[in-house]
Amino acid sequence: MTSSEWDRTQLAVAEYTSLRAEIVQLTELQTQIIGGAVVALGVVLSVGFEAGNAAVVLVYPLLSLVFGIVWLYKAHLIARIAAYLREEVEGRVGRGDLGWERFVRTHPLPHRLLAYWGLRSVFPVTSVLAIMASHAAGPARSAPIVLYTASCLVTAGTFAIFAVWREPAPEIAGAGSRWGGQKG
For this UniProt entry, which segments traverse the membrane (predicted)? Predict the structure, then answer.
């Protein structure tokens, strides 16, 4: 191996290591976002029930939508980095030397749809729970019909965003395709 080949290999390994660390950091942020959404639900429910005001509880679906969009953005960043590692970096170093992303793509998790939708469901499901809880939080007059309708529409939007704006994940992908079978 010549000096320039060695330098390129070292550079590729450094890039691979750095980008894998970024994936870990993004995954940790996703976990914090889910935790934040669950804590926000608890706070909103507590305040709404304590005040006897359903309107407070109906604010949660909007919070959940924001948390969900940020979570999805992180998921797309992770998928983008993983595709780059698999297609560019692993190819430069040698398919036999660095191959984690390729391995993940060809060996998806068992029960892949459950794995894929398990965490994503936190955002729309907690929105539905908040809407249902608003009925018990206070008298019907405490939540104007406009707020109730808006919360239902935001919740439907959250479901739609998670159904449409999916990142290319190995859990829902066919092995071997560039983006795992899902574009966008």
Answer: 55-73, 113-133, 145-165
